[in-house]
Amino acid sequence: MKTRMLRDIVVSEVGMGCMALSHGYGKIPPETYSIEAIRNAYDHGCNFFDTAEVYSPNLAGIGHNELIVGKALKDIRKNVVIATKLMPSRMGSLFGGGMYKTVKDHLLASLDRLQTDYVDIYYLHRTHGVSVEKVAEAMGRLIDEGLIRGWGLSQVDVDVIDRAQRITPLAAIQNIYSMVERDSEAEIIPYCIENNIGFVPFSPIASGLLSGKITPQTQFERNDDVRNWVPQLSRANIAGNQPIVEMLKEIAQKKDATPAQISLAWMLHKYPNVVPIPGSKNKERIVENLNSSDVELTDEEFTALEESLNALKVYGHRGLGGF
Ligand SMILES: NC(=O)c1ccc[n+]([C@@H]2O[C@H](COP(=O)([O-])OP(=O)(O)OC[C@H]3O[C@@H](n4cnc5c(N)ncnc54)[C@H](OP(=O)(O)O)[C@@H]3O)[C@@H](O)[C@H]2O)c1
Asked: How far is CA 143 from each of CA 150, 180, 289, 307, rounded to the nearest angstrom?
């Protein structure tokens, strides 16, 4: 697969979001299947794997997903880029030791679960009440110690990014971004391009909406399924967003691709620093998403797509705030 840079870290153009193997999209697969799915993604050219300390069933406990990622990648560790995240709400009791110690303690626990001695990109998962400057300083020390190669922030605006960047340059920003969540286009992605920061969209196919497989009749799972509250996926909004899905289906047919692939090819064409991390619990769909790297849109196709998209109303908005 083609590669891109997240500052000085080389990654496959499309990564794999591993969250759903532990949390967020209903029943999780057996561990052996999840490990095979990660290895299969690697065999299909993916070298970039995204996890977080909080990815566990129902967000209860800690580290379920990191343990799976660690088992899957331990014997090919040097060939892959692992990103994980630190959640401020889990940092409380450790604050007594200061920011550096708190961040380092969390990192060491993640390294243990990931069966490695360094993380490639260590993100602050949310900024909630935490001094981003102090985190930036701590991350700088961890880079100097060789425990992380780079660091990042998630769900942040340009002001926060700039304050952090001035202290320790960032490798990546991981914000929600898709054809129906475009807040980062105005200032954040241009800032990242200007400052050599990678931009890693999460939920890049809008939690499945842009695959065209979700209809107003789709029943989401009752337990641990974020699709019950993703704004674009209320029954009314699934119906309202159908023109976007129909447009994708039409282009997909012409390009001998799938709607999910077109939605990813769109962002890859649009920005040189974007590396999406689609998620799936299904081996074949993971590969389908990775193969979006081979779906080339011409400039004319991209412009036509962009113009059609701009003319369509999006129903539902999550944005960068809140959860
Ligand atoms: N930083 C953060 O705060 C944050 C928040 C959320 C997620 N993330 C990261 O971003 C990654 C991706 O985000 P996400 O999983 O929320 O959203 P996503 O990739 O936009 O969508 C995942 C959903 O789409 C479905 N899907 C995926 N590919 C498909 C395809 N080709 N055809 C049909 N359906 C498809 C999946 O169903 P199936 O499983 O049935 O295929 C799943 O329900 C996560 O794994 C996680 O690593 C980060």
From this structure: 6, 35, 32, 42
Q: What's this model's pTM, rounded to 2 decimal places? A: 0.98
User: Mean pLDDT across the stretch 167-172?
Assistant: 98
> How many domains in the chain?
1
Residue 312, CA distances (Å) to 113, 114, 299, 308 in order: 44, 43, 20, 7
Nearest residue CA, atom 24 of ligand 1? 208
Catalytic residue of the set 42, 55, 177, 315:
55
> What domain range is 274 assigned to?
3-207+258-296
Ligand 1 contacts (CB < 6 A) are 17-20, 25, 50, 154-155, 174, 202-208, 211, 213, 260, 277-282, 285, 288-289
Is position 221 within any domain?
no
In angstroms, the CA 11 to CA 85 distance is 17
Q: Is 55 a catalytic residue?
A: yes
CATH of the domain at 291: 3.20.20.100
Q: What is the mean predicted confidence (pLDDT) over 190-207?
A: 98
Q: Residue type at 37? A: A
For residue 107, is pLDDT > 90? yes
Question: Mean pLDDT throughout 273-290?
Answer: 98
Is the confidence at residue 238, as pLDDT, over 70?
yes
Atom 7 of ligand 1, residue of closest alpha carbon: 202
The answer to whether position 196 is within a domain reads yes
Instruction: Decide if 303 is inside a domain.
Output: no
Domain contains 201: yes
% of the chain residues with pLDDT over 70: 98
Distance 44 CA to ligand 1 centre (A): 18
Ligand 1 centre from 162 Cα, in Å? 28
Q: State in Å: Cα 97 to ligand 1 middle.
A: 36
Here the tokens at position 37 are: 């799915």
Q: How far apart are CA 30 and CA 21, in angstroms?
A: 9
Give residue 234 CA to ligand 1 midpoint distance, Å: 17
